[in-house]
Design a protein that fits this description.
This protein is an alpha+beta fold and about 150 residues long. The protein has one domain: OB fold (Dihydrolipoamide Acetyltransferase, E2P). Helices cover about 30% and strands about 30% of the residues. The strands form 2 sheets. The protein has a 5-stranded mixed β-barrel. Helix 3 runs parallel beside helix 4. The radius of gyration is 17 Å and the shape is globular. About 30% of the residues are buried.
Length: about 150
């Protein structure tokens, strides 16, 4: 009976964990980007998939999808990157949530600043760089650059 209870507890704990959280700040890398999935997701040489934290780009078929994906390719594909952790380490699909740097270029920030991405307000309390990203978003909104120039859904 004791073992059955332990197995039940372990099962419930493993089912209820959606996000792995961390208050620690870590840097990972250097790692080579081998594939760009879309405007906010890429694959690394170690086999991991990374979702750029704090931002959201258009999905396939939406206005500015191709441009956002191409910009992420231009910034990262076949380049060495460093990953900076956020509060949540994994999303619900078990992708790493990270801020991406190529040298001193903050890729998440460039995508927002140039209108390829919106700040993901839904997760503002879980986004370490939320205030910085929101500041970068002001000009593209004001000038209707990139995704901000797309017709409303």
């Amino acid at each position: 009976m004791k073992y059955l209870s332990l197995i039940l507890v372990l099962f419930l704990v493993s089912c209820s964990v959606v996000y792995e959280k961390s208050s620690d700040y870590k840097i990972e890398g250097p790692l080579l980007v081998t594939n760009v999935v879309d405007g906010d997701t890429l694959d690394l040489e170690d086999g991991s998939r990374v979702r750029l934290s704090g931002i959201n780009t258009p999905e396939k078929g939406e206005c500015y999808y191709k441009e956002a994906k191409e910009k992420l390719k231009e910034l990262t594909l076949n380049k060495t990157v460093y990953l900076h952790t956020d509060y949540s380490l994994l999303d619900k699909y078990q992708r790493k949530l990270r801020y991406i740097y190529v040298g001193d270029i903050f890729v998440n920030g460039v995508l927002v600043d140039e209108g390829y991405a919106r700040v993901f307000d839904k997760y503002k309390d879980d986004t370490r760089k939320y205030p910085e990203l929101k500041k970068l978003e002001e000009e593209p909104i004001k000038n209707k650059i990139g995704v901000w120039g797309c017709p409303p859904k």
